[in-house]
Amino acid sequence: MTTTQVPTPARTAQTPPVKRPKRQREGAAWVFLSPWVLGACLLTLLPMAVSLYLSFTDYDLFNSPNWVGLRNYTQMFTEDPRYWRSVGATLTYVVIAVPLQLGLALVVALALKNMKRGRAFYRSAFYAPSLLGASMSVALVWRALFNEGGTVDNLFGTGGWIFKPGWALVTVALLTVWQFGAPMVIFLAGLQQIPGELYEAAEVDGASGWRQFLSITVPMLSPVIFFNLVLQTIQAFQVFTPAFAVSGGKGGPADSTLFYTLYLYDRGFVASHMGYASAMAWVLLIVIGAVTAVLFRTSRSWVFYASDTEGGVR
Amino acid sequence: MTATATPTPGVRKPVAWRRIALHLGCLAALLVMLYPLAWLLATSLKPANEVIASLDLLPSHLEWSNYRTALDGVNDVSVWRLLTNSLLIAGGAVLGNVLSCSLAAYAFARLRFRFRGPLFAFMIATIMLPHHAVLIPQYIIFNQLGMVNTYWPLILPKFLATEAFFVFLIVQFMRGLPRELEEAARIDGCGPFRSFFLVILPLTRPALITTAIFTFIWTWNDFFTQLIYLFSPDKFTLTLALRSFVDASSTSAFGPMFAMSVIALLPIVLFFLAFQRFLVEGMANSGIKG
Amino acid sequence: MPGNRRRDRTRDRTCGSARDRTRDQARDRTRDETRGKARKPRRSRRAAVAAGLAVALCAALTACSGPDGSTSAGGKVVLRYTWWGNPDRAARTQAAVDLFEKKYPDVEVQTSFAGYDAYKQKLATQAAGGDAPDVMQLDYRMIDQYASGGVLLDLGTQQTVLKTGEFEPGLLATGKLNGKQYAVPQGRGTETVVYDPTQWKEAGLKPPADASAGGWTWDQWADAMRVLKEKTGKPGATDPGQSEDSFEVWLRGQGRSLYTKDHELGFTVDDLTRWWTFTDGLRREGVVSPAEQTTQLDGSVENTPLGRGKALSDMNWDAPASGYLALIPDGIALAPMPSGADGTPGQYFKPSMFMGVAADTGSPEQAARLIDFMLNDREAAAILGATRGIPVNESIREEIAPELKDFDKTIYAYQATLEGRLDTPPQAPPSGDSALQTTFQRDYDQVSYERMSPREAAQDYVTEAKAELRS
C-alpha cells in the first residue's frame, strides 16, 4: 500500500505513569477497533482485492474475466491520449481548487471565530451552498450562471465560460470552492477546541492579534489544517460529482473537464471496460498515496499535537 | 485574522469599526454565495419554457404547479413516504458513523496496539481508491448477503466505520487533546473504556457533531448508492425521486425536479440548523487545564 | 459546560479498580434516576436512548426487507420488472401491470424505474452482480452486450406464451442475435427534423416536403438552413456533426452502414472525414449551431439549441420531440430526415425499446407472459398508448390510432408518411457501440472547437472504433 506512517505519538506514551499489563490495553484497543476491522475486511479489503485482480483482466461486466497481465496498464500509458488529457485536467483542478477552497474556508472560519453577534447566522449562511451537494439542479443553475448572457457574463463580460474549453474547468473548480462549508465547519470545530486561556495569557503578555494567530492559532489548529489539506487533496484527485453533473457525464467541452474518475467511470460503466477502469483506479491510488505520504512526511515539521508534548504551547 | 483580537480598554473605537467592517465584508461575501441559491429557488417557480432557457433570475410568472406535481410524489409513492425513507437512512447513517468512527478513532489516536502504523496507513488508503472501482464487488457481497433492496447496504457500512474520512477527522481532534487528561483519569483508576466515554468523548464533541452533520447531508444527497441498492419505488428516497423527473430519452419535467430539490433541501436545512448550535458550545471557554 | 466537565473530573476520581467499575456504573444509574433533572445523568440516559434506537432501527430494517428475487412468496410467483422513463410512463406502466396482476392473480410484479442514464448503470451493476431483474427494458445498444454476456434468455423457448405473429418482421429481427430472439421490440420510432413552423414562414421558407412528396436531400437541407440563417440571423439547426445517429442516416443515404453484418466498421476514415467536413463547414458559416451550443446537448430537448431558442430546428427522435411543445409556444412540426443525393432514404424505423428476460429467472414462463401482455393485450395497449413509441404489433397499432392524443397523433401521422418507403433496420449494433456513441461526440468536439481537423479526428475515431470492436 503506501509508506504512510503515523507520526508516532508513542513519544510520551513510552513511560505511562501508571503501569498496566500491556496485553490488557492492547485487548482494549482491539475492542474499540472491532467494528472497523469487520468493515475493513468485509466491505473494503475484499472489494479492493477483487478490483486489484480485475485490473489485470479484460473484465467487461458481462463475461467472466480473462487474465491479460499488464496490458491495461501499458495501454493506459502508451495508447490512450484521452487518459493523459484526463490526468492533465485533474492535476490542474487539484492545483486550483484545493488552495482556493481551503484558503476561503480558513479565512471565513477565522472571521467567524470571535464574532459575538450573528455568528450562527453567518455560519449557517456560508454553509448553505454545501447542503446542496452537486445535484442535477445545482449543475443546471451553474450552467445558467456561467452561460453566454448569464449573470457572470453580464457582470464581467466573460462570455460563456462553462462551454469554453479553457474555462470550463475553472467553473467546475468554482463550484467546489463555492461549497467550502465542510472544511469551514471543520476549521471552526478545531478553533473551538483551542483553550481560551492561551489567548488570555497572550493578551496579558501583550501579544498582537497577528502574533497570537501565528503562535497560538496556527500551531493549535495545525492537526485540523493538516486533516483538511490531506482530505481535500484526496477528494480533489477524485473529483467526480461536480464535473459529472455540470458536463452531463461527458467531461466536455472538448474533454476539458474529463477528470480522472470521470474517465474511469466512463471506461468502466459506459464502455464496460471494468478491467481497464480498475487499473486506472489502482494507478490513482498509488499516485494519491505518494502525495499523501509526502504530506504526512512534511507534517512532522509543522503539525503540532497536544498529546505529543507535556502540555501547553512550545 | 483581526478577529482574534480581543478589545482592550484603550482601543475600543477602532475595534468597533473593525467589527462593522467585518460584518460588511461577510454580508458582501454572502450576497455572492447565496445568489445561486436564490436562482435555484426562483427556478423552481419558473414555467417549463423558462427553466433552462431563461437567463433571468425571476420567473415571468409564478408556476406553483411545479410544487403541486412534486408533492404528488412519484408513481403512487407519496412525498411523505419518500421523506420518511430518506430520514430513516440518513438517521441510521448518522448513528452508525458517530458510534463506530469514534470508537475506531480512539484506538488509533490514544491506544497502543500492534500494527497501528500500517493499519492507520491502510485506513487512509481506503479513501484513495475511487469507489467506482469497488462498486461491483460490493454489490456482489450485499447481494450474497441478501441485502439488496433493503436499507442495509446504505446503513451497515456506517456502523462498521468504513468511512475513513470521519475516523481520520476524529483522530485528528483527539490527538489535539492533552494526554494528561487520560493520565489523570488513569491515576483515578479509569480504564480505557471509561476514559473514552467520560473524558475523551465529551471533549471531542465538535468533531462528533461535525461527523453527524456531514453524514446526514452526504447520505441524504448520495444518489448513486441509493440508486444501485434500492429497487422498489416504495423504498425510494427524495433524492432518487427527484431524479426520476428527468429522463433524457423521453420528456423531462425540469420544473418539478427543481421544486423537488427545494423540498428535499428543507430537511437538511433543518438538521443543519438544529445541530450547528452545538458546534458553538465548544470547549473554547472551558479550557483544558490538564 | 465548564461545570459539567469539572464534575466529570471529580467523578473520574471515584473510579476504582476494574472490578469496582461495574458497581460504580450501577450506582451511577441509581443516581441518574434520582437526579433526573441534573445535567450529568443525561449522558448515560442518552446512551441508553441511542442503544434503543439502534435496536429499533435494526427491527425496522428487517421488517422492511421484503421478498427479493423471483422466489415465490406466499405461493405467488414474484417477478421484478424494470424500465427507464419519466413519471408519465411510470404511471401508465404501473396501471398496465396492475391489470396484469388482476388477470394473473398467481403472479406478483414488483416494478422499478429510473431515468435513462441512471437506469443503464443500475442494470449493468445488477447484471454484473448476477442479480438482473426478471423482466427488463433494453435499448438497441444494450442487446448485443447483454445477450453475448449470457444475461438474456432466448425468448424463442417461450413461443407458446409470447406471441410475435403480429409484429413487423423487420423490427422483430432487430432483437435477434445469432438466430436467437433475445429481446422483443416494444415500440418504434424514427428520426425527424423538428422545426418551428412560424419562424420558417417568417423566413419565407416553405415547409419541407414530406416523404410521400419526395422529401429533401442533404444539400437541399443545407440550403434551407442557409436561408434561415440569412433571414433570421440565427443558426438553422443543431450541428448534426456530433450525432452518431445523424451520421448513420447520412451514411445509409449513400448505401453504406455504421456496422457490417459481422460487426465490423461499415465505413472508412474518408467517409467520416467527408461528413465532418460537411458539418464543420456549415458551422463555420454560422448555418448550424456553434460549438458552445452544440456541446450542451445531453439528450434532453431542453438543452438543445432549438429548445433554448438558439436555433430553428433540430434532428431528434420523434417521441422525445414532444418535449418541445412546452418550450416553443407556437408549436412544432416534423419533417423527414434528409436523404442521399439520389433520394435514397437514410432513416429507418428503429425499435425505440425492447423487453428482455433474465437468463437466470426462476419463472421464465410468467416473465414471457408479462411481456406478451404488455405488447399484445388490447386493454394494456389502451392504457400504454404510445408511451414507448408507436406499438410494434400491427393490429394494435391500427386499433389505438384513433385513440391517440396530442403529439402521439402527430408522430403517428409522421410515421404514416414514411410507411413502406424505408429500408429494413440494421441488426442491433455491436456491444462496443455504447462507448463509441460518446467517443463520436468527443471527437467531434475536437473538430468544432477547432483543435483537430476533420481528418485527424476521423482517424482517431476509426482507430478507437476498431479497437473497441475487436475487444
From TrEMBL, chain A:
Any single biological process term in GO: transmembrane transport
PROSITE patterns referenced in this protein's UniProt entry, alphabetically: ABC_TM1
Key words, A-Z: Cell membrane, Membrane, Transmembrane, Transmembrane helix, Transport
Membrane topology: Multi-pass membrane protein
Transmembrane stretches, start-end: 29-56, 91-112, 124-146, 166-191, 212-231, 274-296
Domain ABC transmembrane type-1: 87-295
Composition skew (Polar residues), residue ranges: 1-15
Domain of life: Bacteria
Major subcellular site: membrane
Stretches for region Disordered: 1-22
GO CC terms in record: plasma membrane
Gene3D superfamilies to which the protein is assigned, alphabetical: MetI-like (1.10.3720.10)
InterPro entries (UniProt xref): ABC_transporter_permease, MetI-like, MetI-like_sf
Compartment(s) where it occurs, according to its Swiss-Prot or TrEMBL record: Cell membrane
Protein family according to the UniProt entry: Belongs to the binding-protein-dependent transport system permease family.
Protein name per its UniProtKB record: Sugar ABC transporter permease
Native source organism of the sequence: Streptomyces lacrimifluminis
UniProtKB/TrEMBL annotation, chain B:
GO biological process, one term: transmembrane transport
Primary site of residence: membrane
Membrane topology note: Multi-pass membrane protein
Keywords: Cell membrane, Membrane, Transmembrane, Transmembrane helix, Transport
Gene Ontology CC terms, in alphabetical order: plasma membrane
InterPro entries, A to Z: MetI-like (IPR000515), MetI-like_sf (IPR035906)
Domain ABC transmembrane type-1, residue spans: 83-275
Transmembrane segment boundaries: 20-42, 87-108, 120-142, 154-174, 195-220, 253-275
Entry keyword annotation includes Cell membrane: yes
Record localization: Cell membrane
Keyword RNA-binding part of the UniProt annotation: no
Coiled coil regions in record: none
Protein family: Belongs to the binding-protein-dependent transport system permease family.
UniProt name for this protein: Sugar ABC transporter permease
Phylogenetic classification of the source organism: Bacteria, Bacillati, Actinomycetota, Actinomycetes, Kitasatosporales
TrEMBL record, chain C:
Ranges of biased composition (kind: Basic and acidic residues): 9-36, 452-471
Biased amino acid composition, Basic residues: 37-46
Keywords of the record: Membrane, Transmembrane, Transmembrane helix
A Pfam short name: SBP_bac_1
Lineage, opening ranks: Bacteria, Bacillati, Actinomycetota, Actinomycetes, Kitasatosporales
Transmembrane helix found in the keyword field: yes
Residue ranges, annotated region (Disordered): 1-46, 443-471
UniProt cross-references to InterPro entries, sorted A to Z: Bact_solute-bd_prot1 (IPR050490), SBP (IPR006059)
Domain of life: Bacteria
Protein name: Sugar ABC transporter substrate-binding protein
Keyword check for Transmembrane helix: yes
Transmembrane segments: 47-63
